[in-house]
Task: structure prediction
Amino acid sequence: RSLHDTNTKVVIRNGHQVSIIDDEIVVGDILSVNAHNLASIPADCVVLGPLTSGGLKMDESSLTGESVLIAKKPGDIILSGTTAVQGSAKMVVVAVGTFSVAGKIKAQVYEST
Result:
């Protein structure tokens, strides 16, 4: 099995919790993220709420170059390509693939080659 096939996320879809690969995530899925596995975020999302009292802290250095962790609260946007490094949260997916920030960046890179 490839790394792609083993990179799974837990989502709530149609009221059921399922484990799926990143490419199967769709707009409207509720993504459960925790820092225990340094979860990379595969889609643009809006935080619904923390699962832990410590909240959620994200490493956004892949997009911003800043190494400072960013605390997220309900209503905040989480961009694809960032990583959860502390805490956990549930978030609703609002953009995937080429419509997400990471997807747009990848498209620009491939377009320029």
Remarks:
- DSSP finds three helices and eight strands in the chain.
- The chain has a mean pLDDT of 86.
